[in-house]
Amino acid sequence: MNSTPPTDSLEQGSVKFELSHVSKFFGATCVLNDFTASFQESRIYALLGLSGSGKSTILRLMMRLLEPSGGQLLFRGQSLQSMDVLQLRRAIGYVLQGGGLFPHLSARDNIAIVARYLKWPPAKIRDRIDELAELMSIPHELLDRFPHALSGGQAQRMSLMRALMLDPDVLLLDEPFGALDPITRHDLQQELRPLFTRLGKLVIVVTHDLNEASILSDEAILLHQGTVVQRGTLEAFRTSPATEFVERFVEAQQAIPGGR
Amino acid sequence: MFRLTLFYVVLLGLALVPLHPKSASVTIGSKLFTESVILGECVRLLCDDAGIDTTHYRELGGTRILFDALVSGDISVYPEYSGTIREEIFRGELETDELIHAALTERGIGLAGPLGFNNTYAMAMLRTRAAELGVTTISDLARHPDLKCGFSNEFMERQDGWPGMREYYDLGQLSTKGLNHDLAYRQLQLGQIDVIDAYATDAKIAALDLVLLEDDRNYFPRYDAVVLYRVDLADQHPDLLRLLQSLEGGIDNAEMVRANALVEMDGKNESEAAAMILDETLGIQPEVHQESLSDRLFVRSLEHIDLIRRSLIPAILIGIPLGVLATLFPSCGRMILGAAGIIQTIPALAMLVLLMPLMSAFGQASVGTGSATAVTALFLYALLPIVQGTHTGLKSIPLPLQHSMESLGLPLNYRLLHIDLPLAGASILAGVKTSTVLTVGFATLGALIGAGGYGQPIMTGIRLNSTALILEGAIPAAIMAVVSQLCFDLVERSYSTTSGRRT
Lengths: 260, 503
Prior knowledge:
The structure holds 2 protein chains of 2 kinds. Chain A is of the alpha/beta class. Chain A has helices at 55-62, 85-90, 107-117, 122-135, 152-164, 182-199, 210-216, 234-239, 244-255, and strands spanning 15-26, 29-40, 44-49, 70-75, 78-79, 92-96, 170-174, 202-207, 219-224, 227-232. Chain A contains 9 helices and 10 strands. Chain B folds into 3 domains: 24-118 and 223-282, Periplasmic binding protein-like II (D-Maltodextrin-Binding Protein, domain 2); 121-212, Osmoprotection protein (prox), domain 2 (D-Maltodextrin-Binding Protein, domain 2), CATH 3.40.190.120; 293-498, MetI-like fold (Orthogonal Bundle), CATH 1.10.3720.10. In chain B, helix 2 links the parallel strand 1 and strand 2 (54-61). In chain B, helix 15 (293-328) runs antiparallel to helix 16. At the A-B interface, helix 2, strand 6 and helix 3 of A face helix 19 and helix 20 of B.
């Protein structure tokens, strides 16, 4: 696979997100323990791990869908706590497994919902949607369908369009291809990598699929039981696993061709 | 948001406007039995004849409801009995007529009458049987210890009924049993029992050829028919007092028995019976309007729809926001849902009686057609399904969608209006549907306090034991329930096709 090694992208962007010593407890259960990382502009990160490893929690903390139990989160150098939560969320595009499109709205209305709230002129909304449809290779007639009349791959593209509508700095993708069949998933992955690179946004993909991470990301962070066990390139995961868990995680996915 | 609030307020305002503004200057009330309705009609026809504008709220309820309505001014006149005033209204605490008059005057109420007949408890026997035994007085019963008595359960229990009478007349050796009043008449006819208790002006006395035994030692208190009226009204209509006084002493027991029998035995209506009384006592021949079935149905349908409109629309406008609140604040939600659930368990009559003084205190009409009491009760009953439907609908939005909408950075009110509530729409609609069908049925209970609608013929039908009258209310009510259910089914179908399949 043509994973881009971090050494290729030499341009050092500014730090968008900085998390230091962040932890999250639900009651006595620790889902994230002392997590520290900084995420830079124009780079693509993969958060890897098994289910329950705390990787989705990180995304939800970054959008303040959850509040941390400890530690600090900075966005563009500013503490998340001091920011307007709605503005923060609008600066982030979020796509989750299955797309999360609202079934009572057409694809177009789903994509336009926040822009309409912000009172964008209809022409501006139309132009932006046209632009995104072209970017995502979506035929125009699909835009007026309701989500239930879209295929899984189409719904996921619409969902990405909704996330990109306001041209946010950051894209957070939570297992975005989890519900797709292998062929659709493969096509989307291949298509999105160059797109992300072109858009120059900070992208963080949560996945448990090493293959997906290697296609999409520049750098990966592997979590296990709320703790970071290894970070760096996926090549390093294979050649010099930090723990026995990393070794098993890599081996398990190589055993089945095509990941999973 | 401002526009929505405005829309809400306007809609709520429209929903609360009563259809019939109170216009009649004299409102007459009557109790839940034929004689009271006939007397109410007598007053109405007299007023009509004198050109005074009236409304007669028939079958408004029992003593408490009518007297309270009179004191609060919701009605201005109603027929009552001296014994009831003494024993029930003043609980036997006032000994003399002077004290009772003073107590009434203090409440702004005047008394006209007595009208002439005394509808007290009485002992009744078949005329033939009584003649055969030579029994004419209650004292005579003591000479026939083998006689069998069948008394209504109420009479068996009341201290001023059988227990007191047995002691007073020393009738200990008579055999007695308690039974349903209608059954007692039948068993009397069949000769299975010899003596029953009856009201002195009971319609069946003439029909079954019964004699009443003379209360020779004056055991039973007098239940002289009188008319209670508001003094302030008599001031505005000096004629009214004169009219009421013209009835005094004119109606004797035999006359009242005939009038009752005309309605209960011969199937005439109360207006005709009242017209007969006025003709025979005062020589007045009032015009009695006969409403056709379609007229009656039309008026009652309007009244029924009006009750539903004024209760259901506010219930929807307030129930949905309550459901939203209950979802946003779970601790307050438990309280809201709990309260709505408890309301649902309050029996209709208890609810109406509880609400009446409240409505009076707020200066609203507590009884009568489209009264605030009935509307408020229906409103409260309609809340639970709507609150619950909204709550359930919001709660059951799939978690991924909840996360998805939270992540968009939309403010709560915008989100609720454009995403949450439409997603919960099917469940809210189901709640509104349940409430509507329920309210169509429940609205018939408004007749318990004379609120009008389809319940009115049902109440009259139960009183007169007339299946035809009961069906006159029950069938249109059932049709309305079915039609509203069908309408909602249609709306639900179109809703589910426009909004797509739920994920």
